[in-house]
Amino acid sequence: MQFRFPNLGKLAIAKFGVIVSTVVIACLMFGMTWAQDGAANVPAVPAAAPAPVTENMLVKTWNSLGTMYAIVFLIMSIILVALVVRAILAVQKNNFVPDDLVQGVETSLGEKNPQAAVELVRADESFLGVVLSAGLEKMHKGKEAVLEAMQIAGDSETMRVEHLLSYIALIGNIAPMVGLLGTVQGMVASFGTIASSAQTPKPNELANGIEQALYTTLVGLYLAIPAIAIYNILRNTVQRRIMTAGTKSEEIMEQFQALSK
To answer: Could you tell me the pTM of the whole model?
Structure first.
């Protein structure tokens, strides 16, 4: 029997808010430190020349992106962090095969007390608990009915995590497309300046559009690359957990069936 994903369970929204806020603040502090370090490494200019004004990296990125794209990317970043944190919590082992459930059920079955084992299973909301509960309800109909019920329950419970992981992949696919949109818009603005100018425009007149084109692509890739990487890592982790959960559910169900004979 093979399943795809475990049950998410109930996760505290407040916990997500705290984690997301911490990550955002850390990113802001890192950006400020990066800008300050970059300014410290700028070679000294001659005394006669005015010192260049160093712009904060975050401020420069915001101004280069433009308000609309900066807000869009910021919202996507916060959503991505929240989804990743939630997914990491969801793929923990206790959401698949809780050790206390396995030990409690095996102990009860070893003591020839299937009723206590059933109560433990029905009180547990993990992937293993939900699948075993569905199988126990069909024990009177035979082994085939039990396996079918367990498969259906497993597929039903997997929808939440499947959707969660797909949202991470969705951001990974959309982010570079938003960056490409900004690139096209920036290049259109630059060529529009050339077309509407009677004379060859100065480079600084074209710089805004070109800079926006490059920065939107850059930020889009910064979001897409880790999103896709994390998605694949979490998906592989889930598949390994499911193999363990499927094997353990069959072993425990065989013990239930042996006692019911």
So the answer is: 0.71
